[in-house]
Amino acid sequence: MPEIKPLIKEEPKIIPLEPKIEVKTEPSKEEKLRTEEHSKSEEKTEEKHKIEKRIKNEEEQKTLQKETPAIEKKKIHKKTEGDFLALLLNFFDENKIKALEQQILRKNAEINFTLSLPTPVGEVKYYCKAKNKKRCDEKDLSAAILEAQMKKLPLLFLHSGDLSKKAEELLKSPEFNNISVKNI
Fold first, then answer.
1. CA-to-CA dists, residue 31 to 26, 45, 64, 83, angstroms
2. How many CB atoms lie within 10 A of CB 93?
């Protein structure tokens, strides 16, 4: 009979791995200087950027402060004796009227405007005839009415003096109901 050999189980051998040991070597003096210089240069550039940002912010704030008062101030046109246009523009500013077009016929005497007046319903376009006379008569008024009718707009008649009796009677008639007359 054949010989029977006993089975022997061999256990695998465990070979322990050697732990990796990192050898820290100190950087040389040159490397230390380079890293210090590099970090210092980075700090300097960061400081420069911060300073530049601060300067830009301060400049923007200054420009905003300069622009803000200009926006908040009302447009005040200088009134000089005989400067009829400045008087009219002040009147428009006070009443929130926008001048869309302007035509000076005679300096300090007669000016035509196309205006946009604010109303509760919305903006309304008007034709404006402004006269700088001591006394406006019905001829001035009727000429202004014809011009406004030709442009198919209501009339705003501004004058610096008085209206004659005939002009006042003309305004009372029902045909002239889309006319506004104002003394400035």
1. 10, 21, 49, 80
2. 15
Exposure letters 111-141 (e unless 16+ CB within 10 A, then b): bbbbbebeeeeeeeebbbbbbbeeebebebb
DSSP SS3 for 168: helix
In the 3-class helix/strand/coil scheme, how is 48-110 assigned residue by residue?
Answer: HHHHHHHHHHHHHHHHHHHHHHHHHCCCCCCCCCCCHHHHHHHHHHHCCCEEEEEEEEECCCE
Please report the pLDDT score of residue 55 as a whole number: 77
* 70 or 86, greater pLDDT: 86
Cβ partners under 8 Å of residue 124, min gap 6? 116, 117, 154
Query: Taking the CB of residue 86, how many other CB atoms lie within 10 A of it?
Result: 15
User: For 149-175, what is each residue's pLDDT tens digit?
Assistant: 999 999 999 999 999 999 999 889 888
The confidence score (pLDDT) of residue 70 equals: 44
Q: Cα separation of 26 and 154, whole Å?
A: 93
